[in-house]
Structures are given as structure tokens and as C-alpha cells.
Amino acid sequence: MQLPPKVTDRAFERLAEIGAGDQGQALRIAVEGGGCSGFQYEIKLDAPAEDDVVLEGNGERVVVDSVSLPFLAGATIDFTEELIGARFTIDNPNASSSCGCGTSFSM
Questions:
Q1: 102: exposed, middle or buried (C-beta count within 10 Å: 0-12, 13-18, 19+)?
Q2: In contact, 41 and 101? CB cutoff 8 Å
Q3: I want to staple 79 with a disulfide (CB 3.0 to 4.6 A). Which of 14, 49, 61, 96 is the partner?
Q4: Domain locations in the chain as residue ranges
Q5: What is the pTM of this model?
Q6: Calculated CA dihedral for residues 107, 42, 48, 5, nearest 10 degrees
Q7: CATH 2.60.40.1180 for domain 6-94
Q8: Residue spans of the chain under pLDDT 50
């Protein structure tokens, strides 16, 4: 069985700051075909669906659909604040290469 992605405390704290759980929303991490490297991440607030894997912490939820899950096995979902802005990031050991935008990768 594959390891589900890990979510850092910082990512859960950011979700709490923006009130995601209070609105019944979760952070959805999905993998889609496309992007400059073959696959791209879609990161958005969304309502959990029936086939989602739900990762919970700090009263907040991160959800991954069953199709995206294998692409995210063992990945770490974090929240970073840098000069270019604050954003959720994904450190994915499955990606053989990624691009500068941080949302696209190949396997």
C-alpha cells in the first residue's frame, strides 16, 4: 500500500487562518495531465467528495481524489511564505523533474 501524502502543521494552520473548515471546505490537491512538464497540480478549496482520501489536522482537512493519490504517495504538502508570495507547496518524491512554476512535474 502506498503512503498517503503528509500535510505539515503549517499547512493546516494556514487553512485554519483562512477559515476553510468553518465554511465546510477542504484543501483539494489534485493531479491533472497538462502543464509544462506533463502533469500539473490543482490546488483549491473544495467540498470533500465520497471517493476522497481525507487528511485531517488542526480541525482542518486536505482531500485527495483516488485518481490523484498514486501520484502523491509519500509527498509533503506545506505552506510557504516567500518573497514571491505565500502559497501551498508540494514536495513530491515521485516527480522526476519539475518546472519553475512549482505546479507542473513529470514522472
A1: middle
A2: no
A3: 14
A4: 6-94
A5: 0.86
A6: 40
A7: no
A8: none
